[in-house]
Amino acid sequence: MPTGPDPAAADHPAAADHPVATDQPAATDHPVATTRLPLRRRLLPVIALLLLAPWAAECSWGGFAIDDFLPVLIFLGPMYGGAAILIRETARHLGASWPTIVLLAAAFGVLQAGLVDQSLFNPDFLDDTQYADTRAAAEATLVPGLEFSLRQAFDYVGNHIVLTICAPIVLIESFLGRDRRLRPWLGRPGLLVVGLIYLLGSLFIFSNISGDKGFLASPLQLAFTAVVVLALVGTALLPRWRRPHPRRARRAPHPLWVGLPIVLVRLGADLMPGWPGMAIALALAAAAGGLIVYWSSRSNWGQRHVLVAGSAGLVMAAAFAYVVPPYSPASPAAALAGDIAVTVVTVVLFGGAWWRLRRGSPTVHVGAS
């Protein structure tokens, strides 16, 4: 994923002629500056992210009919929204950007699927849903010894990175002005509250699912999950993500072209079943990520590029919502209403963020990843 810092020189046209930019916020973007804002202004994006994360994670792709949207926000908001807030705030407090956010999002995805709901290891997890027929395809990529499907791991963790964390963060930040986009929204007391909310929400989901499914992962599976999570978190916190990086002289393509690699990953990930299909999916994801990182180091990379890169997956999910069934059977009217609502919300969010960036400062540059 590309990064989104705004150098202090962004307001000066001559700054675009210089070959080097920085990943770090300007000196005026220290966390203490957030205390100057009224509490209401600081909490508004927090609440928005708390609500948008669960909706994007479970509703944006057609997983629930419209009459289930509110329960999703109520019961899954503390877990998904809490994680998105903690990840965003951790990166912004450190002065880091999108590499850190993406790695922490991957850690959350592994933690969620491996420890909290344990869907990664439970072969019966989807048997009581309308996705029970995907079991055979999942078992075609079973990892020996650890007994989890690489196909499901790619889907579960990838969706958490793209939908649960990155898309909500980039959308909310794009609605904010340059002076608030990269600053933390919460201090230590607020982070402690959100951390407690996330912990309680995760325990609630774990207790409900483990009781309903009657499944617990093996000690080896749990240890493997913990090691992967710690490795991802450790990598995310490396100082290298907070250092300045050189800016290439060539210009990045139009922001809308940045979404093309994500579209190709979405369309090509299911071209073939089994291990060959997984090789294609992983290769496409790696190529798309590498291309976006390369583009993000060019001179005119801006927040609109970041917006497209971060939300293209959400737009694709909304487009395919009409052809996938919800988890539980629903009336055709409720399912269609949910899909239409997904389209409307996605168009309003992306269109509004795009308009906000064009209206606010169409020439703003951001740092390379």
- Approximate strand percentage: under 5%
Cα radius of gyration in angstroms: 20 Å
Distance linking N and C termini: 8 Å
Ranges with pLDDT <50 over ≥5 residues? Answer: 1-35, 362-369
Mean pLDDT: 87
Query: What is the H/E order?
Result: EHHHHEEHHHHEHHHH
* Order of strands, widest sheet: 1-4
Counted beta strands: 4
Major beta-sheet overview: 2 strands, antiparallel
Q: What does the overall shape look like?
A: globular
What does this structure look like?
- The protein has 369 residues and is mostly helical.
- The strands form 2 sheets. It has a two-stranded antiparallel sheet with strand order 1-4. The protein has a two-stranded antiparallel ribbon with strand order 2-3.
- It is globular and about 50 Å long.
- The N terminus and C terminus are likely disordered.
Outline the secondary-structure elements.
Elements: E1 20-21, H1 39-59, H2 69-94, H3 98-116, H4 135-139, E2 142-143, E3 148-149, H5 150-175, H6 178-181, H7 188-213, H8 219-236, E4 245-246, H9 260-268, H10 274-296, H11 303-320, H12 332-360
Antiparallel strand pairs: 1-4, 2-3
Helix pairs in contact: 1-2, 1-5, 2-3, 2-5, 2-7, 3-5, 3-8, 5-11, 5-12, 9-10, 9-11, 11-12
Q: What is shown here, in short?
A:
The protein is mainly alpha-helical and 369 residues long. It has helices spanning 39-59, 69-94, 98-116, 135-139, 150-175, 178-181, 188-213, 219-236, 260-268, 274-296, 303-320, 332-360; strands at 20-21, 142-143, 148-149, 245-246.
List descriptors:
369 residues; mainly alpha; two-stranded antiparallel ribbon; 12 helices; globular; disordered C terminus
